[in-house]
Design brief:
Length: 217
């Protein structure tokens, strides 16, 4: 386990170095809410494509596997959306398996639209030319089924890290931008996101890299 600063060029070269001949490589980036993992994954994927001179890297967010709001309402979990049991973990694992075995056609993955706070089916097209997947999400290193099935599918696991105060600041900014009042945004960041972080932070111990990320989450 190595702690490093977010040198995107170095990280992109490291990820490209994991890509083998003829297959597809998945690098996982875990981290607590507000840790900067999405920004990091996008930047590494973009730089890897630049270095390779081809669109061979794709950012894949786990957020596309949020359960729909109507489903969360039916389950009584809407008030803690983002908790580990508010995702379709089995679906996420199935997609990772598909990406490693289905190399001759486009695989469509769900995305997540924050303006409507819902997953969007088929929003991400992963072409046969994509050989490096930067998968990111809160629970990639979480123990227990189905999440424990993720780690064996990763060529390497990274953990995006940021101080709690910075994570909370980013989360409050995010929640207010998407419609919550400042008070409600702070309460959600501390109570809901904070509870999730307490589950996620110990999983850093199984990551190959801990990356002290910066910039907006």
């Amino acid at each position: 386990m190595i702690a490093t600063s977010p040198d995107i060029d170095t990280l992109a070269r490291r990820a490209l170095g994991l890509v083998g001949a003829g297959g597809r490589t998945i690098v996982g980036i875990a981290g607590s809410p507000g840790s900067g993992k999405t920004t990091l994954a996008r930047a590494v994927a973009r730089r890897a494509c630049e270095l390779a001179g081809a669109p061979l890297a794709v950012h894949l967010p786990m957020d596309g596997f949020h359960l729909a709001n109507a489903t969360l309402d039916a389950l009584g979990r809407r008030d803690r959306k983002g908790a580990i049991d508010t995702f379709d973990g089995w679906g996420f694992v199935a997609l990772l398996n598909r990406l490693q075995s289905e190399l001759d056609h486009t695989v469509y993955a769900p995305g997540f639209e924050r303006t409507v706070d819902e997953p969007v089916a088929g929003a991400i097209a992963i072409e046969p030319s994509a050989r490096l997947i930067l998968a990111e999400g809160n629970y990639l290193l979480a123990p227990g089924a189905p999440w424990s099935a993720v780690r064996p599918l990763l060529a390497e696991a990274w953990f995006a890290d940021a101080p709690e105060e910075e994570r909370v600041r980013r989360l409050v900014d995010r929640h207010t931008r998407h419609g919550r009042s400042p008070g409600a945004a702070l309460a959600w960041a501390r109570d809901v996101d904070g509870a999730n972080a307490r589950l996620i932070e110990p999983t850093r111990d199984s990551a190959a890299l801990i990356i002290r990320s910066g910039g907006p989450a």
